[in-house]
């Protein structure tokens, strides 16, 4: 049996174009996969895997077709019979080639737009949720504060006894509630819902308009919160009191302490930036209020920064403005190596400033504020001293019961009227006036004086820190401790520059208001006294006078009394200003000569009492020392402190402890007149205090007292003389018994002249 051989060629021919639809289909799939990758970024990795699998399958199918084509070409020997075979998948590939590419791109674009719309809608929902969270949390926050300040506070006040320092616990809570309620009222004023696009703009505008009030309220509350915590810890130490507080607090919101409510403002001010930034995150940059929202978020962050900075400044101020009453042993116990080294460095820097070895850091703005503060301090202290003196004399007048004495007055009616008027003044009108004076003038002045202590301590501490800062200022690199020193100086300096002008303005306003109140009190006193005197007007001695005549009579009486008082004052002044020469030691005499040569004899003063310096640049002097006057007031214009030169150094001395030194010439120049014989000295003395026996023997004086030299008066208590001018000796010594000065009369004027400037000459010479 013969088996037929395998033909060399196949009777059909394969179309090579069958691979083209496969390749086109693969390209379409690649484009579709790329579009899906751009639209769905979170599924990029999975799409890449699908893309690789699809590409591998397409390549495998294409290789299979090519292999079959190659095998077919090898088997075919170009026979005459060729059969055209049509594959089943050829129709499918042909249909896919008919699908236009634009349709696929449109579908991908449409799908992308749908996803973007969904993302925007989701973002809008999140924005609306953030806005609703801000509004709803603000309402809940305000409701909690109202429960705390109204219900809980009233219940705690009703406890017997109420907790101590309860008002300080709720300090500044009303201000915080006020700004929160105002913010909510502004949001509800336009009656817009959070879904409305204009609501966001209204929210930002409302917050920005209240930003300054929010900062002012919260910064005071946050500064006081540390004190609130200390008070609450004090409550916890008393178990019985704390259990009562818990019984009051727990039924409200199931809280276990007061801090549950009191910490809410601390948390709320810090949440504003977070909530506003969340709204900004979910807001479209194309939103009309986006720029305003960004500004509001930045403002909320700045508020927190300002509050933190204010809190830090207040902590530094509280640390350094304290006044500690330490004993000497306490100060010794506080000494350490570090403190001694620090004080030594400060003293060394201060010496360098005074000697000019190192320049001093000058701050003109601060120096101006400090000078104005010192003027205010001096004015407040002087005003307080005057008010206390006024009240003292008023109290002395009230203690004097003059109506109980008998007066030599014409008529009984006038005496009765006087007693009744004085009784009414002493028992009703003046005591009420004194009470109002102490309440409205004296007490506020005392409180204002106490407030000066804090700024004064800060100014002194700034000087200390400035000396420390100048030591380390030139160093290129600072250690941690040196950085702390520099930071402390800058903080105190900035605090004083910010707060001292406000303090000066408020203190000045208080002084003006007190002076106005003082005037109003006296106006009311005059009205009360006028009303009192109207009931006795017809019974007084001068009630029949016409108002103009009565005014003239009053003016005449007042002027006469003033004239008599002036005469008395002049008499006392002459007595007090009589020349004083105290014995001086040789060293004082040398210093006196030195000061006289340098400043002149008219500037020499002598110390009447021992002087102990209590302030900067004060001198310590003993009784009898000589000084030369340089200025009759200090740098602040105080005329009670004089700038003097003691020969060794210059400084300030109380003017009340100085008296002008009248130096008598020890070696007068030769007189052009005849010298007085030595045995005639007793006679010159007798011319001042004549002896009766001498007058009996000599009925007419043989010598005349004249001025031997020219003398120029240096005060009202002295008299000027010219050489050869006759004088009449009234007293041969001054009021203190000093024979170096004589009281004389010349040309109708009386005054003191040096005794060795006088001489006696024979009559008729």
Content-based structural category = alpha+beta
The H-level CATH homologous superfamily of the largest domain, spelled out, is Dbl homology (DH) domain
Strand order of the largest sheet: 4-3-2-1-5
Which CATH first-tier class of the largest domain would you pick? Answer: Mainly Alpha
Rg over C-alpha atoms, rounded to the nearest angstrom: 52 Å
Instruction: Give the percentage of residues in beta strands.
Output: 5-15%
User: In total, how many beta strands?
Assistant: 10
Helicity range: 55-70%
What shape does the CA trace take? elongated
Number of helices: 22
InterPro entries: AH/BAR_dom_sf, DBL_dom_sf, DH_dom, Dynamin-Rho_GEF, SH3-like_dom_sf, SH3_domain
Keywords: Coiled coil, SH3 domain
Pfam families: RhoGEF, SH3_9
GO molecular function: guanyl-nucleotide exchange factor activity
Keywords:
765 residues, alpha+beta, Dbl Homology Domain, Chain A, Substrate Binding Domain Of Dnak, Chain:A, Domain 2, SH3 type barrels, five-stranded antiparallel beta sheet, three-stranded antiparallel beta sheet, disordered N terminus
């Amino acid at each position: 049996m013969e088996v037929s051989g395998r033909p060399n060629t196949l009777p059909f021919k394969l179309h090579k174009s069958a691979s083209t639809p496969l390749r086109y289909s693969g390209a379409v799939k690649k484009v579709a996969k790329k579009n899906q990758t751009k639209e769905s970024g979170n599924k990029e990795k999975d799409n890449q895997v699908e893309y690789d699998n699809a590409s591998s399958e397409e390549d495998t199918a294409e290789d299979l077709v090519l292999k079959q084509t190659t095998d077919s070409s090898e088997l075919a020997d170009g026979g005459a019979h060729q059969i055209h075979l049509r594959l089943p998948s050829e129709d499918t590939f042909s249909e896919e080639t008919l699908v236009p590419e634009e349709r696929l791109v449109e579908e991908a674009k449409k799908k992308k737009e749908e996803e973007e719309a969904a993302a925007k809608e989701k973002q809008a929902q999140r924005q609306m949720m953030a806005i609703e969270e801000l509004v709803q949390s603000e309402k809940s926050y305000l409701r909690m504060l109202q429960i705390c300040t109204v219900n809980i506070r009233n219940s705690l006040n009703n406890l017997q006894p109420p907790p101590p320092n309860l008002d300080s616990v709720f300090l500044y809570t009303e201000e915080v509630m006020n700004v929160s309620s105002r913010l909510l009222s502004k949001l509800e004023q336009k009656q817009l819902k959070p879904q409305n696009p204009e609501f966001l703009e209204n929210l930002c505008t409302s917050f920005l308009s209240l930003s300054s009030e929010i900062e002012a309220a919260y910064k005071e509350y946050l500064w006081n919160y540390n004190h609130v915590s200390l008070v609450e810890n004090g409550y916890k130490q008393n178990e019985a009191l704390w259990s009562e507080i818990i019984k009051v607090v727990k039924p409200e919101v199931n809280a276990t302490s007061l801090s549950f409510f009191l910490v809410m403002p601390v948390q709320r001010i810090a949440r504003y930036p977070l909530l506003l930034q969340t709204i900004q995150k979910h807001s479209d940059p194309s939103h009309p209020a986006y720029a305003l929202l960004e500004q509001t978020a930045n403002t909320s962050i700045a508020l927190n920064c300002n509050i933190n900075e204010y809190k830090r400044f207040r902590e530094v101020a509280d640390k350094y403005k304290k006044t500690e009453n330490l004993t000497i042993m306490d100060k010794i116990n506080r000494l350490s190596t570090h403190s001694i080294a620090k004080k030594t460095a400060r003293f060394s820097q201060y010496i360098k400033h005074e000697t000019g070895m190192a320049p001093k850091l000058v701050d003109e703005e601060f120096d101006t504020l400090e000078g104005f503060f010192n003027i205010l301090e001096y004015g407040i202290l002087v005003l307080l001293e005057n008010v206390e003196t006024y009240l003292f004399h008023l109290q002395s007048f009230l203690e004097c019961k003059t109506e109980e004495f008998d007066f030599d007055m014409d008529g009984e009616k006038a005496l009765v009227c006087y007693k009744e008027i004085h009784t009414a003044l002493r028992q009703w009108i003046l005591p009420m006036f004194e009470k109002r004076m102490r309440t409205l003038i004296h007490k506020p002045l005392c409180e204002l004086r106490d407030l000066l202590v804090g700024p004064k301590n800060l100014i002194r501490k700034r000087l200390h820190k400035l000396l420390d800062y100048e030591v380390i200022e030139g160093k290129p690199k600072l250690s941690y401790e040196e950085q702390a020193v520099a930071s402390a100086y800058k903080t105190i300096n900035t605090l004083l520059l910010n707060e001292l002008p406000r303090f000066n303005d408020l203190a000045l306003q208080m002084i003006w208001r007190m002076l106005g109140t003082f005037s109003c009190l006296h106006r009311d006193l005059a009205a009360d006294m006028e009303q009192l005197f109207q009931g006795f007007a017809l019974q007084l001695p001068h009630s029949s006078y016409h108002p103009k005549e009565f005014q003239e009579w009053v003016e005449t009486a007042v002027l006469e009394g003033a004239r008599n008082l002036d005469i008395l004052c002049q008499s006392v002044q002459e007595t007090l200003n009589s020349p004083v020469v105290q014995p001086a030691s040789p060293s004082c005499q040398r210093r006196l000569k030195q000061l006289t040569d340098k400043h002149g004899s008219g500037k020499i003063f002598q110390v009447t009492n021992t002087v102990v310096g209590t302030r900067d640049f004060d001198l310590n002097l003993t009784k009898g020392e000589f000084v030369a006057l340089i200025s009759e007031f200090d740098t602040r214009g105080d005329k009670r402190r004089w700038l003097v030169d003691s020969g060794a150094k210059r400084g300030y001395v109380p003017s009340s402890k100085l008296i002008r030194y009248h130096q008598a010439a020890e070696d007068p120049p030769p007189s052009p007149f005849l010298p007085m014989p030595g045995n005639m000295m007793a006679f010159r003395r007798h011319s001042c205090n004549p002896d009766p026996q001498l007058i009996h023997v000599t009925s007419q004086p043989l010598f005349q007292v004249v001025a031997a030299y020219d003398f120029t008066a240096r005060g009202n208590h002295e008299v000027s003389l010219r050489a050869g001018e006759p004088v009449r000796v009234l007293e041969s010594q001054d009021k203190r018994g000093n024979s170096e000065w004589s009281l004389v009369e010349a040309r109708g004027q009386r005054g003191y002249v040096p005794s060795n400037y006088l001489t006696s000459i024979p009559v008729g010479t």
